[in-house]
Amino acid sequence: MTDDPTDAEDPAGKPEGRPANRSVTRLRDPRGLRALAHPIRLSLVGLLRVEGPLTATRAAELLGESSASMSFHLRQLAKYGLVEEAGGGKGRERPWRATAMFTNLPDVAENPDLAVAAELLSSVIAERYFEDVMRWLEVRQSEPEEWQRVAQFGDTYLYITPDELATLDEQTQQMMDQYIDRQTHPELRPAGARLVSYLHLAFPLLRPFGRLAEACPPGETAAAGETATPPEEAPPDGSAR
Predict the structure, then answer these.
(1) For an engineered disulfide with 97, which of 86, 111, 172, 190 has Cβ 3.0 to 4.6 Å away?
(2) 39 exposed, middle or buried (CB, 10 Å; 0-12, 13-18, 19+)?
(3) Rounded to 10 degrees, what is the CA torsion of 51, 44, 171, 158?
(4) Nearest to 121 by CA among 198, 63, 45
(5) Exposure on the CB side of residue 203, measured as CA atoms within 13 A
(6) 76-110 tens-digit pLDDT
(7) Rounded-to-5 percentages of helix, strand, coil across the chain
(8) What residues have CB less than 8 Å from 213, skipping those under 6 apart?
(9) So what's the pLDDT on residue 213?
(10) Mind listing the domains of the chain with CATH numbers?
């Protein structure tokens, strides 16, 4: 729940019709983006969103870090409005909570500094996605059969316009919203529920089937230094070999 495509123009971060629990922090300060682009801080914000409020000591135990390290990272995150004190306690026993359930990154950067910072954070998040996927694949065969059957792993190629992709995103978000309240209200989680990562990735393919999307249309010769792979050689379902 680090990045969220919720309408960034809504000042409250909660478009009409969305549950109140879908709170969003719009991160537009390059310094804040760079501060969050840290594996421990990403884990810490995520932990507070689903298990918080937590003290620095408890967060350190759950993440396998020192209390001093957690206190430092919490203060850095608080500078940019990503976490805040929940009240009560002293020192490292003060509870902290996330300020929002999601973080919204800029889709189009307003200046080069913001663009570089947003790209850095996005890259760190993408690496986290990859690590989570690989970790699941490593243990999948030892997981209960019911979870092996329903875990999703695949992709779909679509020819759509920007407006259609935005509509598809909104429809997907609406389906997710019915489960959002379970993040902060454990009593709503049914027996057998587990924390699941449902990735949202949709973007134009720049090298479909090994070709350059614009420079090498179907049936034409590949650009210098590129190898063209005929579309018919790709798996019919769009999956990787």
Answers:
(1) 86
(2) exposed
(3) -140
(4) 45
(5) 8
(6) 999 999 999 998 888 778 999 999 988 998 889 88
(7) 45, 5, 50
(8) 204, 205, 206, 207
(9) 58
(10) 24-153 (1.10.10.10)
